[in-house]
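Might I ask for a little of your time on a matter of protein folding? The record follows directly beneath this note:
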Amino acid sequence: MSTRPAGHKAIVEAARQEFSERGYGATSIRDIARRAGVSLSALYYYYKGKQDLLVAILDDGLDAYFGMCDKALEAAGDDPAEQLEALVAATVRFRTDHPVKSSIVLTEGRSLEPEHLARYRKNEARGTQQFREVVERGVAQGIFLTPYPDDARRAVIAMCNAIAEWYRTEGPVSVDELVERYVALALTVVEYRPRAVRRPARA
């Protein structure tokens, strides 16, 4: 969590918007300062430069996403199907509610310098691990019948991540409808089969 004072928020948001619109490589530190309405000296008071800002923005995006996923998993209980539903729903909602954060997290990690990239990849892998553990648990319990759990997990993550690129809130599909569709798609991909309900033995 950042310990910088509140004055840095305008700079971070300006950088976020510039990176989203122009891309990290095409954005200059002057572009960010101009958009934030601050001088270069004020910007450098809070951040060493553009790379420092990218690190802060990526960390913020991942923290926000994992916060949603952790909360959803906690409410889902122990059933792998419900856990997968929770992860998919959280991912879809994050991609639709925070398209700019999502886009930068999904595309600009490659712009990190080596000293920051390894730590970022390690943090980023947490999301993959959450999906992997849920899918593997479902396969082990016999409710996910896919013979290709790794491929299924990758497919589910990829389709959820792609939402950030095409979804528009003013379009014909509501977020709730999108969540319902993608949960159904995810359960189909893993070939979910609920456990048979046992009938009580007759006396």
About this structure: The chain has two domains: 1-47, 51-189. The first helix runs from residue 9 to 22. The radius of gyration is 20 Å.
